[in-house]
Amino acid sequence: MSTEKAEAIVIRQVDFSESSRVVTFFSKEFGKFSALAKGAKRLKGPFDAALDLLSRCRVVFIKKSYGSLNLLTEARLSTRFRPQPAELQRVYGGYYVAELLQGLTEDFDPDPALYDLTVETLDAFAIPDTPSSSTLVRFEILLLREIGLLPNLSECSVCGEPVAVTPKISDGRFNHWVTQGGLLCAACRKEEYSGTAISARAISLMRQLTEDNTAFGSESTQTEIAECHRFALSAITNALGRKPSTLRYIQI
Ligand SMILES: [Zn+2]
Known about the structure:
Layout: E1 2-15, E2 21-27, E3 31-37, E4 56-63, E5 70-79, H1 88-104, H2 112-124, H3 132-146, E6 152-156, E7 173-177, E8 182-184, E9 196-199, H4 200-212, H5 222-240
Parallel strand pairs: 3-5, 6-8
Antiparallel strand pairs: 1-2, 1-4, 2-3, 4-5, 7-8, 7-9
Helix pairs in contact: 1-3, 2-3, 3-5, 4-5
């Protein structure tokens, strides 16, 4: 048992009793963890607005030994999740980010880079005119890279042949074969490997994104971003064992 401090984002809340909730955080220092927030459901509770979904806060909690519920003792709001109110897509985008962190990260497995990416993504939803779909697809791809599940974008997953992405073959297509965690070259592509076709251009966009962490450039089209999304989504669905449930409210 130890008292710990963390900078954290609220990613889930579950009612525990008449007045208490179990809150799941994604924190910079500890990764994901859950804690019992006593009195959190009371109108003038001890934690106030700090525990709203996707709020960023400074928390103090008592870390219990394995198997027992941690206890939240303090939560101070730093930033509230405030997307453009008229754009539901951004609100659901935030819920989608929370669902992916909940489903794809392990308890007490810190990843400060993933934490920073999450903050950046949620902040981007508050800026007017930031394209919400490219922000989300960027999050999907960089999240997969952080947790080590990004399919190999450089070589065929069967023969190991490098996947060349040059302007000459920019309309060349590769089949994405998600169970093998990667791409399939034309020579290896067989009927039994059903997969989604993906353009060389989309592959090159994803490579660039994972190499320099930038956003999708303005030259990337909605179709290409949607292709990258489908690619990332098959890896996400495979890892979760189901399609993310908040996805039905989002259009990419
Ligand atoms: Zn091959």
